[in-house]
Amino acid sequence: MIFVGIDNGLNGGIVAIDNDEKILHKLVMPVLQGKKKEFSIYEITNVLENLKIKYQKEDTDVQVFIEEARVQPVSGKRASFTTGLCYGLFQGICSALRLPYEIVAPKTWQKELLKGLATDTKVASVMYCLRKYPKEDWTATERSRKPHDGLTDAMCIAIYGKRQMGENV
């Protein structure tokens, strides 16, 4: 079985792992750069469709876990709109591609995986992934110096989802 974790913000990521928690695919959230960042809906759809095609050929199921989006009280109108857009966007893409998906609340996967790490959950997810996969590059680009927390959050979501499915895998 393949498990796909999605941190669905503009600075999010998409990560796919197998039953052994081996990384099969990881990608910083595809966006279009213009006056304002926008989701690259075509590229996001293409990534998920290619994962489905590649692994279902091998008689393997693909399960997607999407982080639940919530508007923060301090968020502005644009941020709130973008949050809702991305949340619905991923559900729509998964439904159109007939990919099963589950919604995972941020506090739920964070409580499970990030126990005893930094209180800042972004820092904690980076720490978790650097410890679990010390040879993996978690930066967004070759020029980046810091790990990309959208990728590490997506990785944690995939691991959490896989572990929750447990014996059902």
CATH homologous superfamily label: Ribonuclease H-like superfamily/Ribonuclease H
Span between termini = 7 Å
CATH architecture label name: 2-Layer Sandwich
Here the CATH topology equals: Nucleotidyltransferase, domain 5
Please report which band the strand proportion falls in: under 5%, 5-15%, 15-25%, 25-35%, 35-45% or over 45%.
15-25%
The sequence of SSEs as H and E is: EEEEEHEHEHHH
List descriptors.
Nucleotidyltransferase, domain 5; alpha/beta; 5 helices; 169 residues
Description:
The structure is a single chain. The longest helix has 20 residues, at about 75-95. The protein has one domain: Ribonuclease H-like superfamily/Ribonuclease H (Nucleotidyltransferase, domain 5), CATH 3.30.420. It is globular, with a radius of gyration of 15 Å. Helix 3 (about 105-115) packs across helix 5 (about 150-165) and helix 4 (about 120-130) crosses helix 5 (about 150-165). It is an alpha/beta fold. The chain has a five-stranded mixed sheet with strand order 3-2-1-6-7. A two-stranded antiparallel ribbon has the order 4-5. The protein is built from five helices and seven strands. Helix 2 (about 75-95) links the parallel strand 6 (about 60-65) and strand 7 (about 100-105). It is about 45% helix and about 20% strand. It has helices at about 40-55, 75-95, 105-115, 120-130, 150-165, and strands spanning about 1-5, 15, 25-30, 30, 40, 60-65, 100-105.
